[in-house]
Write a structure and sequence with these properties.
This protein is 36% helix and 20% strand. The chain is α+β, with helices and mostly antiparallel strands. It has 2 domains: 109 residues, Orthogonal Bundle (Arc Repressor Mutant, subunit A); 103 residues, Beta-Lactamase. Strands 6-5-9-8-7 form a 5-stranded antiparallel beta sheet. It has a 4-stranded mixed beta sheet with strand order 1-3-2-4. Strand 8 and strand 9 form a beta hairpin. The radius of gyration is 20 Å and the shape is globular. It binds zinc ion. Zinc ion binds next to helix 3, strand 4 and helix 5.
Length: 275
């Protein structure tokens, strides 16, 4: 039985796990002192009850496998971070919306990603793949993981300039950007007319899901209207829309370097002030 708090890469190393097929969530959880069981649940996807060094994780038996596995990793994240006496009950919304705040749900989501989409296995398979949901689905299948978690991983670690943006019918919930865009380009508060997400949020029937769209429908930058990006959007539960934006044509990024230099107003933290 391992002691103290352990991080996912440490756990995988101790168990000698090197391939996605070996990422058996039940065995990993057991190693960490938590037993996973599958039961009918209503009102939540998974829950955990823990006391001292043992925990029971209950997962909705009727969910699909990718979500069950993610739930297992998420609950295990609660256990590893807050072990002792704990009780959490987690619903699907937390998996979709709980990504960019500092709270136990975000920590649990991050733990699940690091455990079940470990970078040492994910990066070699993801590098250079087109940033569209077809790639996300292929990776999600290989790792038997949820779509949202896999999409975040692809944007942050796939090596191509891209963003993933989550809009609920009410507001933008969160976004993530690849390292070359992070802190340099920002999405508008809401996607504008002309984007696929705009139609989907307006309850249009799902039609074309991937298209080249003008950058200014999505991005807040004085020169955005001169560029095009590839958008792939899909509607999740309760009208939430997940959008992948990919700077397939990297001209905007080259021009951005020039623009930043011209303006010469790079701040000391490396970010840039746009007007
Ligand atoms: Zn949770």
């Amino acid at each position: 039985m391992p002691g103290a708090i352990q991080m996912p890469d440490q756990i995988l190393a101790e168990l000698g796990i090197r391939e996605p097929e070996e990422l058996e969530i039940e065995a990993i959880a057991e190693y960490c002192g938590a037993t996973i069981r599958y039961r009918p649940l209503s009102g939540c996807e998974a829950r955990i009850i823990g006391c001292r060094d043992r925990a029971i994780i209950t997962i909705n038996e009727s969910s699909w496998r990718g979500r069950q596995r993610f739930s297992g990793g998420h609950e295990l994240g609660h256990w590893m971070h807050d072990r002792g006496r704990i009780a959490f009950q987690c619903d699907y919304k937390m998996y979709v919306h709980g990504w960019r705040a500092t709270n136990p749900e975000t920590r649990a989501n991050d733990f699940a990603s690091d455990l079940l989409l470990p970078l040492s296995m994910f990066q070699p398979r993801a590098r250079g793949l087109p940033v569209i949901f077809t790639s996300v689905r292929a990776l999600a299948d290989a790792f038997k993981m949820s779509l949202t978690a896999t999409a975040i991983r692809l944007v942050e670690h796939g090596g191509l300039p891209s963003m993933l943006i989550c809009n609920s019918p009410q507001k933008r919930e969160w976004f993530v950007a690849s390292p070359e865009l992070s802190g340099r380009l920002w999405p508008l508060a809401r996607p504008e007319e002309g984007s696929i997400a705009f139609s989907l949020l307006g309850n249009a029937a799902e039609g074309k899901k991937t298209a080249d769209v003008r950058c200014d429908h999505w991005i807040n930058h004085p020169r955005a209207e001169s560029y095009w990006i590839k958008e792939d959007s899909l509607r999740l539960h309760e009208g939430t829309v997940l959008s992948l934006l990919w700077w397939e044509d990297e001209k905007q990024l080259l021009d951005l370097d020039e623009y930043e230099e011209e303006r010469g107003n790079k701040r000391s933290d490396g970010r840039t002030n746009w007007e």
